[in-house]
Amino acid sequence: MKKAFFILGVSITWLTALSLKEDRARRLIEMVKLWRLQEELSLEEEEAVILFKLVKEKDSLRIELIKKKRALFKEIKQLLDKKSPSKKIKEKIKEVREKEKYYREKMDEIEDKIEKTLPPEKYARYLLFNERFEREVREIIKTIKEKRRKR
């Protein structure tokens, strides 16, 4: 019963977050994520302080990568629309791949720090939590998009 109320509360929070402006929604999702991490991992205070800092840093990198890729894909689309030379298109593709590699390496470094911060059992629960949390977010976003299309 407690879990059902928890899921309902989180769902309402997501629905609220997604109706807000993107930045505010992102902050609300971040708060829910950190709160649920604390609850599900039973973090010690020191672990929580370090983990929350690292999680925020990793999420910021992920968001930054998404924004950079969007901009680069827009440039690639413009190059394609203009029927630009293949060389220019290849340069942009290379730039996308380099950005992905750079950010992936940075996020891997943060993930290594997280693994060193937590005992193996908590780190394993953290990995499972992340997978489940991301899936829940995608499902909620999908549901909201479907409801918007029906209007």
Verbal overview:
By secondary structure, the chain is mostly helical. It has two domains: 1-42 and 133-151; 44-118. The chain is built from five helices and no strands. The protein has helices at residues 2-19, 22-41, 45-81, 86-117, 120-150. Helix 1 packs across helix 5 and helix 3 runs antiparallel to helix 4 (86-117).
Beta fraction of the residues?
A: under 5%
Main sheet attributes: strand count, strand direction, barrel closure: none
Q: So how many helices?
A: 5
Straight-line distance between termini: 33 Å
**Order of helical and strand elements:** HHHHH
Rg estimate, integer Å:
19 Å
Mean pLDDT across the residues is 86
List how many beta strands DSSP finds. 0
What ranges have pLDDT less than 50 throughout 5 or more consecutive residues? none
The number of domains is 2
Q: In which range does the helix fraction lie?
A: over 70%
Question: What is the global morphology?
Answer: flat
Content-based structural category: mainly alpha
Summarize this entry quickly.
The protein is mainly alpha-helical. The chain has helices at 2-19, 22-41, 45-81, 86-117, 120-150.
